[in-house]
Design goal:
Distance between the termini: 18 Å
Strand content: under 5%
Largest sheet: none
Number of domains: 1
Domain Terpene synthase metal-binding: 1-81
Keywords: Lyase, Magnesium, Metal-binding
Number of strands: 0
InterPro entries: Isoprenoid_synthase_dom_sf, Terpene_synthase-like, Terpene_synthase_metal-bd
Structural class: mainly alpha
GO biological process, one term: gibberellin biosynthetic process
Helix content: over 70%
Protein name: Ent-kaur-16-ene synthase chloroplastic-like
Length: 83
């Protein structure tokens, strides 16, 4: 299920970069992915960025929780670094 969610989200974000987002939105999205500790509902320049970043953060957090159950260690930071 994690793979399917990640694959779908990858397609959505890729399309956003290819045709959907303005330069400002793309810049903000990249900054959010680097900082990670932002409040998307307050710091966003658009609803498009807020929705996509919230989805990325949610799925990565979910993957981290599930991985911890199986591995007994946190992998969330590793997943964040690769996103």
């Amino acid at each position: 299920m994690s793979w399917a969610k990640s694959a779908f989200l990858t397609t959505v974000v890729d399309d956003f970069f290819d045709i959907g987002g303005s330069e400002e939105e793309l810049s903000v999205f990249l900054v959010f992915n680097r900082r990670w500790d932002v409040n998307a509902s307050v710091d966003c320049c658009s609803e498009h960025v807020q929705i996509r970043f919230s989805a990325v953060r949610s799925i990565i957090s979910e993957i981290g929780v599930e991985a911890f159950k199986w591995q007994g260690r946190s992998v969330t930071n590793h997943v964040i670094e690769t996103s």
